[in-house]
Amino acid sequence: MIANYFERQQHTAKIRDFTDNFIEKEIPVEIRTDRFCDRVARVLKIRWKLPQPSHDLALIAKAGKNCPFCPQHLETQTPMFPSELVPQGRVHFGESVVIPNAFPYCQYCGVTIFAHQHYIPLNQLNADLLLNAVNASLQFFDHIRQADDAIRYFSINWNYMPTAGGSLFHPHFQVVANSEPTHFHQRLIDQSQKYGKKYQSLFWADLIAYEKAHKKRYLFNYGDVEFMASFCPGGIFGEVLSIFKDKLAMDDISQNDWKNFFQGITRILRCFDRLNLDNHNMTLLLGRDGDEDFWIQARIMPRISIPPWGTNDVNYFEKGHNEIVAIFAPEELAAEIRHTI
Ligand SMILES: [Zn+2]
Fold first, then answer.
1. Of 14-18, 72-76, 303-307, where does mean pLDDT reach its minimum?
2. Does a structural domain hold residue 320?
């Protein structure tokens, strides 16, 4: 049943190669369609070099002098929530702090600063640190739930480093809450319910079973949290999908589940670090009440700027045609992550 949603088309482009006496050569392009997510990705079979490390340590240190998220500036240079929402003004959990987003995308929009440390390289983003940031974010969501009964959908989002859309180096999540799901979240909920009615089965359970059987994109599980590379990725170097098995509402997720989730995420980050994929986006979709047939899930994808000019990895195909260009096949990404301990 899952196979009905995934389609692969092979195309070739012909060129006469100036590096090889202008001999005619065929270059393969694979077009993948995911009818469940309503996504198209063009997977190029060109051998690309992995990027060089992209973090400019001198620039990051310079930015630290005026960074509003650093502890010496946070109290005076960041906003506070209205007291009816968060009586103390900001939410603290360990070293993590949630403050309002000064550039909000919706009615309830926060920023969760992970820790005091201004710059945290990929290999230091450990599970305990990320767990603290999630617990701070969940406490912020509790304040919203107590203040506003209409809010049902939440997400924890991550732009790690400016190449991935981060406006500050200091590591932080973007945490948002709405009465309605976002466009993509709604699509997944709708499709999950349509699939359930059509096949009398759960899409997410079937997807896990399908990927386990096919082996090429399935990664691993930690407890009830499953990880796999997406068939049709949302990013240039692919994407990892993480599914919380049988968890529909956000309160269904235990501390142990969160620990399991971050065990998997930090293993993926170790792989990204090894490949110099040192910028990424993550989205984690949560519902207050749970939607029938929809399991809580997250997606994480590397972002790069392309040498030598720092070219952006998003171009007209994604912006104007809503199709992703990928230069690393999902199966290649899965193999790299599986080989990372
Ligand atoms: Zn800072």
1. 303-307
2. no
Residue 73's domain is classified under what CATH number? 3.30.428.10
C-alpha 56 – ligand 1 centre gap (Å): 15
For residue 172, how far is its CA from the centre of ligand 1 (angstroms)?
Answer: 10
Assigned domain for 167 exists = yes
What does the pLDDT look like over 279-327, one tens digit per residue? 999 999 999 999 999 999 999 999 999 888 889 999 999 999 999 999 9
The span from the CA of 181 to the CA of 333, in Å, is: 29
Residue 114 alpha carbon to ligand 1 centre in Å: 10
- Distance, CA 169 to ligand 1 centroid (Å)? 7
How many whole angstroms from 58 Cα to the centroid of ligand 1?
Answer: 14
> For residues 99 and 268, what is the distance between their CA atoms, to the nearest angstrom?
28
Ligand 1 center to 335 CA (angstroms)? 35
Whole-number Å distance, alpha carbon 165 to ligand 1 midpoint, is 16
Confidence of residue 45 (pLDDT cuts 50, 70, 90): confident
pTM attached to this predicted model: 0.96
Burial class (CB in 10 A: 0-12, 13-18, 19+), 133: buried
N- to C-terminal Cα distance for the chain? 33
CA 223 to ligand 1 centroid distance, Å? 34
CA of 69 to the centre of ligand 1 (A): 5
Calculate how far, in angstroms, residue 116's C-alpha sits from the geometric centre of ligand 1: 7
Domain total in the chain = 1
CA-only gyration radius of the chain, Å: 21
Nearest of 285, 291, 212 to residue 244 by alpha carbon = 285
Q: Whole domain around residue 239: which residue ranges? A: 64-307+329-341
Q: Which two tokens stand for residue 140?
A: 């912020």
Joined together, the tokens standing for residue 22 give 């202008």
319 in any annotated domain: no
